[in-house]
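Input structure tokens:
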């Protein structure tokens, strides 16, 4: 029995992944939390980044979202107001956009009206929200209140207990403020007047 030494394998260069691009820069520490969409809009407006390019998703279809999320759009607008979509499908579409795109696509949900529960469902899923048909200051205040945590923000939103897993999805985006303050500052509220 001869001793054959193991062949020496050539050394391959270490492959360094490219830096995050696009909306991954605005991701929270967990894909279970909303992107920092407010900051992305501010940066696009200030021309620090290119204009945001979004896909309009007017069909309630998780398989279609799975395909669309891999196309590289900055955002996707899920029109919960104008498509026949239940809460579970909307949530699945938001999660699919976030997870399939690996955080490259910010999900937005146009909620069906000013309903406190619908606003909470969309935000709990991890989306930023679009609120249609806001005609008065009182309606705008109601929408913001329904979307915010804590009395300092005049918020009436309740904590989603099963969305926050200790050490996994409850991390703070900046390591200083708590997760509730980060959520209040991250998700964007776009009001359609």
């Amino acid at each position: 029995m001869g001793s054959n030494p193991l062949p020496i394998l050539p050394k391959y260069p270490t492959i360094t992944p490219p830096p995050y691009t696009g909306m991954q820069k605005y991701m929270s520490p967990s894909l279970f939390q909303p992107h920092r969409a407010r900051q992305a809009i501010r940066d696009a407006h200030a021309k620090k980044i290119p204009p945001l390019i979004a896909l309009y998703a007017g069909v309630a279809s998780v398989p279609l979202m799975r395909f669309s999320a891999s196309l590289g759009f900055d955002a996707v607008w899920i029109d919960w107001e104008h498509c026949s979509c239940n809460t579970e499908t909307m949530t699945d579409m938001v999660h699919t956009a976030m997870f399939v795109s690996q955080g490259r696509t910010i999900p937005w949900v146009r909620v069906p009206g000013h309903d406190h529960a619908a606003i909470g469902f969309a935000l709990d899923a991890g989306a930023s929200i679009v609120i249609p048909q806001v005609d008065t200051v009182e309606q705008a205040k109601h929408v913001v209140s329904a979307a915010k945590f804590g009395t300092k923000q005049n918020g009436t939103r309740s904590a989603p207990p099963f969305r926050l897993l200790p050490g996994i999805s409850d991390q703070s985006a900046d390591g200083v403020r708590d997760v509730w303050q980060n959520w209040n500052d991250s998700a964007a509220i776009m009001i359609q007047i």
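DSSP finds six helices and five strands in the chain. Residues 87-100 form the longest helix (14 residues).
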